[in-house]
Amino acid sequence: MNKNVGLFFGSFNPIHVGHLIIANTMLEEPDVDEVWFVVSPQSPFKKQKSLAHEFDRYDLVQAAIGDHFHMKVTDIEFTMPKPSYTSDTLAYLTDQHPNHHFKLIIGQDNLKSFPKWKNSDVILRDYGLLVYPRPNAKKSELEEHENVRFVEAPLMDISATFIRKSIKNNRSVKYLVPDAVLDRIKGKKLYI
Ligand SMILES: Nc1ncnc2c1ncn2[C@@H]1O[C@H](COP(=O)(O)OP(=O)(O)OP(=O)(O)O)[C@@H](O)[C@H]1O
Ligand SMILES: O=C(O)c1ccc[n+]([C@@H]2O[C@H](COP(=O)([O-])O)[C@@H](O)[C@H]2O)c1
C-alpha cells in the first residue's frame, strides 16, 4: 500500500514528550499518514559520553509509542555503517518500500547545519523537510526553500540533555518522559 511516511531520525537518548508532540503534530499534516522513529546508533555530529546503548534507546521509543496505530520505530540503522548518515538510510528505505513517499522530520535547530549533512541537496530535492520550531534555533537560509515546510506549533524548551542531567542530579523527570519510559530508565539504571 502507498503511504506518506514522515521519518523522524534521532538519537532519542532518551525519547521525551517533545519528540512525541512533534510526531503527533506531524500526523496532523495532510501529507503524513505515519511517523516512523529511526533510532540512530551514532549521529555524525554528536560525540556523547552518555549515549545509552542503541537497544535500550530503541526499547524506550517502543515503550513511548506503545501500540499507536500511526507511529512505528525502526532499528534499520543498527546494521548500517556508523556514523549514521541519513541519506544512506533514506536510500535504503526507499529501496525497501518503493511505493511509500518519505519526508524528513527535523527540529529547527538542525536546519542551520543541514547543508553540511551528507547529500543534503539530494535529501532536499527528493524528500523534503518538515520542520518543528525550536527555541533558540539559529536562522537558516533554508527557511524559505520550497521543499522546507515549517509546522505552526508551540515551542518546547525540552531536550534529552536536560533530562539526562536531571537524572544524574537525582531530580525527577516525571512528565518530561512518558511513565513507561521512566519505569524502564529506572529499571535499567540509565543515565545515573
Ligand atoms: N524540544 C524540541 N523542539 C523541536 N525539535 C526537537 C526538540 N527536541 C528534539 N527535537 C528534534 O528531534 C530530533 C531528534 O532529536 P534528539 O534525539 O537529538 O533529541 P534532543 O532532545 O535534541 O537531544 P540532545 O539534548 O541529546 O541533543 C532532532 O531533529 C531534534 O531537532
Ligand atoms: O546524514 C548526516 O550527515 C547527518 C548529520 C547530522 C545528523 N544526522 C541525523 O539527524 C538525526 C538527529 O541528529 P542529532 O545530532 O540532533 O541527534 C540523527 O538521526 C542523525 O543521524 C545526519
Show unreliable segments. none
Supply the helix-strand structural class: alpha/beta
Bound molecules: adenosine-5'-triphosphate, nicotinate mononucleotide
Which value, in Å, is the CA radius of gyration? 16 Å
Number of strands: 6
Please count the helical segments: 6
What profile does the largest beta sheet have?
A: 6 strands, parallel
Shape: globular
Overall average residue pLDDT: 97
Strand order of the largest sheet: 3-2-1-4-5-6
Which oligomerization state do the chains in this entry correspond to? single chain
In short:
The protein is of the alpha/beta class and about 190 residues long. Helix content is about 30%, strand content about 15%. Nicotinate mononucleotide binds next to β1 and α3.
Question: How would you describe this structure in keywords?
Answer:
about 190 residues; alpha/beta; 6-stranded parallel beta sheet; 6 helices; about 30% helix; binds adenosine-5'-triphosphate; binds nicotinate mononucleotide
